[in-house]
Amino acid sequence: MVLSGKLLKNTLTAFFAVMPSLFFANQHDDTTETVTESAVHAAIEGESAKGEPESKKDAVDAYIEHHLQDDYGFTFFSDEATGEHYGFPLPVILIDNGLKIFSSSEFHHGEKLAEVDGNFYALHHGKIYKTDATGDLKLNEHHHPTVEKPFDISITKNVVTMLFTSILLLLMFVGLAKSYKKGPIPTGMGRVLEPLILFIRDEVAIPNIGEKKYRKYMGFLLTVFFFIWILNLLGMTPLGVNVTGNISVTVCLALFTYLITQFSANKDYWKHIFWMPDVPVAMKIVLMPIEILGTLTKPFALLIRLFANITAGHVVIMSLIAMMFVGKNLAADMPISIGLTLFISVIELLVAFLQAFIFTMLSSLFIGMAVQDHHHADDHDHHTDEEPIII
Description:
Helix content: 55-70%
Strand content: 5-15%
Number of domains: 2
Radius of gyration: 26 Å
Mean pLDDT: 76
């Protein structure tokens, strides 16, 4: 079997066995400007963390922003009565006059300073800043910190999610490859994977790249399709991850497509960019910068489309959930909010697949445009032979 064997079973068992041991509960102490989940919930009830009145709209906006951002740990839920957060921290790795490694629990969700080797670090709006023992971030008139920000290579929850997805993909495809050694028909999870792989091959790769050259790029296309799809699905779980809604992740994915396209391009592709054939010289000079710009706008469209659609879905779902807290009539608003949330969640399942498919299809289309051969002279001669001009 592909994934129903002991390897997958033991991996999942170990994951869920270790996760409870990593749980932590942090008590509230001093507060900073950082928006925490308990502060958001308190604001939804009409008060801020400092006891000052705050509008429910601002609180909902802050909560949605907090959900969309990356974090240095997983927080599953918070107890407002005791002020405790339940989840597990992740390692913080900073380069600041050497390597600084410590647990994100030192920040206590932004409520405390982390002291490492005599240096003090503060967590402010999801970013780490170097400060002093007082925690002064020296905010400017726009309330932005002006203190030094160390080079951050921490393992955040988005990084953990991508690593988990990568390991899952490796197990899936290695298992599928092993199942083919036993016979032509895959077993287990391979029966689900094979139709999807054939779909990407027959409906995406071959039509856009061609039968002669598609095999070279199947590895990338399959990887990017399943990687995005699984990340989109994980983003709909209560884990609160929003990987493909992170602009840096979509930029990286689009950059891979751009580099593969440019380094795989043949001479016909570059000729069409720098010196368009069968076009007057004056037009060639005008079209050259436009074509060069076009090579950059294509991956830009890829990253913006994926980022915007996934982020919009999360915002809509979180906004519908917030209706229950913002509305004055909880008994009337709750059924409407839950019903609309379930409906949008079903739509998001389709969007999760659709965005992975669109990204893969457009990537194959851009690669196909770069590697396909053009025979202008042959086409012209063939056209002349078939349709002679009779005078």
